[in-house]
Amino acid sequence: MKIPGLHHAETWLRRWRDRWIEQRHVPRYLSIDMLWSKLAVEGYVLVRKCGDHRIAFDPSDQVIGRALILNGDWQRGDSERAIGFLSANGMLAPDGVFVDVGANIGTQSVYASLSGRFARVLALEPSPAEFELLGINVRLNGLTGTVDCRQVAVGAKASSMALALNAVNRGDHRLVEEPGANCVAVNVLPLDAILEGEGIDAAEVGLVWIDVQGHEPQVCEGMPRVLAAGVPLVIEFNVEDYGEAGTRAFAGHLAQHYDQFVDIADESLVVRRVPDLAMLPRVADVLVFRSAARCS
């Protein structure tokens, strides 16, 4: 991969565009979007300096990549609110393990490492291209001693499945039962089995972050020891993918182990009851946890 280092991505893109224009004698109204597409076709990876860290990403990604270019982060506020809430309420043990299920290029793994609240990060990502970028981002930020990366999908049981790749939104790869065009075969393991193989006890896990495009119920089905231990979870709770019956079933499963949640995209962090997850009107990133009363 070709990785041009960037201090200011927009400035670098414009300068690169001007050189490219001069060499090819094309109009100077070439847009940043057109240039972005050119970089993607030619196999470039961009590196964005984001204050206290750097992130490498695919310029063809119109969601995470575009957010990184324009804002310098991908949902870092969600990460900081979740970790801050758990810390402030005494629910985050020191030196725990952060488990990133569906780590993609590693933004949340990097943010968790930079928080200083975790002794170890386990990043799990099945997509070959995103897994390669995940490794690059770990090395870019000097986190090889903290972050362990594993190329694996997480589900209810050990199996092999097809991962349907989204060329436009590279955070929207999805596990599917039947392989089709633009799919790759990936290994699937339950999280409990992965942790056991890593020598990690469920009680050592401080937070599990799950963002797997509608496969969250299956991930939770495959981690009964994590749920029994009451490990806090951040879940992209996708009512649109689960459907009405699936949403009720998933909320009911979580309610067997947890009693409260907050929407971490909402800065007010209003505490609600886990059964209310079934009434969410939209996709939401939620932090699910046990209250002090439930733990006692």
Q: What is the gist of this entry?
A:
The protein is of the alpha/beta class and 296 residues long. The chain has eleven helices and 15 strands. Helix 4 (76-88) runs parallel beside helix 5 (107-115).
Report on this model:
The structure is a single chain. The chain is of the alpha/beta class and 296 residues long. It has helices spanning 9-24, 32-41, 64-71, 76-88, 107-115, 128-140, 191-198, 216-221, 224-228, 239-255, 292-295, and strands at residues 5-6, 46-49, 54-57, 96-101, 118-124, 147-150, 153-154, 159-164, 174-176, 183-189, 205-210, 233-237, 260-263, 272-273, 284-289. It folds into two domains: 5-71, no CATH class; 76-295, Vaccinia Virus protein VP39 (Rossmann fold), CATH 3.40.50.150. The protein has an eight-stranded mixed β-sheet, sandwiched between helices. A hairpin with an 8-residue loop joins strand 13 (260-263) and strand 14. The protein is globular. The termini are far apart. Residues 1-7 have low confidence and may be disordered.
Strand fraction equals 15-25%
The figure for the number of domains is: 2
CATH superfamily of the largest domain: Vaccinia Virus protein VP39
Sheet with most strands: strand arrangement: 6-5-4-11-12-15-13-14
What average pLDDT do the residues reach? 88
List the helices and strands and how they pair.
Layout (H helix, E strand, L loop, with lengths): L4 E2 L2 H16 L7 H10 L4 E4 L4 E4 L6 H8 L4 H13 L7 E6 L5 H9 L2 E7 L3 H13 L6 E4 L2 E2 L4 E6 L9 E3 L6 E7 L1 H8 L6 E6 L5 H6 L2 H5 L4 E5 L1 H17 L4 E4 L8 E2 L10 E6 L2 H4 L1
Parallel strand pairs: 1-2, 4-5, 4-11, 5-6, 7-10, 11-12
Antiparallel strand pairs: 2-3, 8-9, 8-10, 12-15, 13-14, 13-15
Helix pairs in contact: 4-5
